[in-house]
Amino acid sequence: MSKEVVEIVKALKKYSDRTINLMEFCGTHTHEIFRFGIRDLLPESINLLSGPGCPVCVTSEEDIDYIIALLKEGFGIITFGDLVNVPGSEGSLSYYKAIGKEVKVVYSPLDALKIAKENKNKNYVLIGIGFETTAPSLAFTVLKIREENLKNLYFLSLNKLTPPAMKAILDMGEVKIDGIIGPGHVSTIIGKKGWEKIYEEYKIPFVITGFEPMDILKGIYLLSEMVLKNKPKLVNEYKRSVSDEGNLTALNIMYRVFKIADASWRGLGILKNSGLELKEEYDDINIRKVFPIKVQVKHNPLCKCGEVLRGVLKPTQCPLYKKVCTPENPKGPCMVSSEGTCSAYYLYGRD
Hints:
The protein is of the alpha/beta class.
């Protein structure tokens, strides 16, 4: 353990007399906090809450069921890996793949172009999922679909914006949040400026943080200092990757293709202006416009993924956790995703 880490851990001990609730929005932060054993270095008075910063986890049951409906209608589905195991009302994409439906897992959205070109007699839907981090590359892919005039490749946008979700959690007031560990990856795109409205409205301590142990510990220390002294600030502690303005090139391409729209979040419901939908000029590519159907959703009342995403419950408080819900047999997306809180608890043996 480095001398600087030792000094910060020692300094944090002085906060043992007051409970401080800090929410890490980002799922990668959640996993790194567990992986590096950071919770074990903190006094019990510093309570870390996991937020809704996992794109797969916040994908609604309705959206999963819509994708499965597309499969049943004969469309091939092209998606990123984690989504295939998320259960819908009538099974997961991996189940339908096992019974012969066409589900392609890709690492780059541009791989969808190659698949569509090689199978011109099959219609495909590329599932666009993620936060601001992945939206620019997906926007570029949509532009390539148009440029190459691919008539058999459509797009479903499940992209979401992070500040509205953070605002929703603060507005709900279900849990007391004293400070926020701001997401590093998202902030590389939206910049420090992307969080200014949240900070100005709530005056809550907010530190944009990287992913190394020193980054996370320093963020926790700064937040604890702000809380103790009652001097909130919006601080960028990830300056090696995050600028004030963000990545303007990425933002420009994102908003060239997408418009801001309402979106459905698992655990949070429909949040106003929290999603990205294709602009009208791409209606011929937008599968929701080409194939508009409604689905009947059957919710699993025992799965507490929604409450976990809001920081209301810990995974260990879910009746399914480790009993019938495991990474091999997930009952909800929080156990599926590599960024999910339930999978982090399971992987690192938290009880």
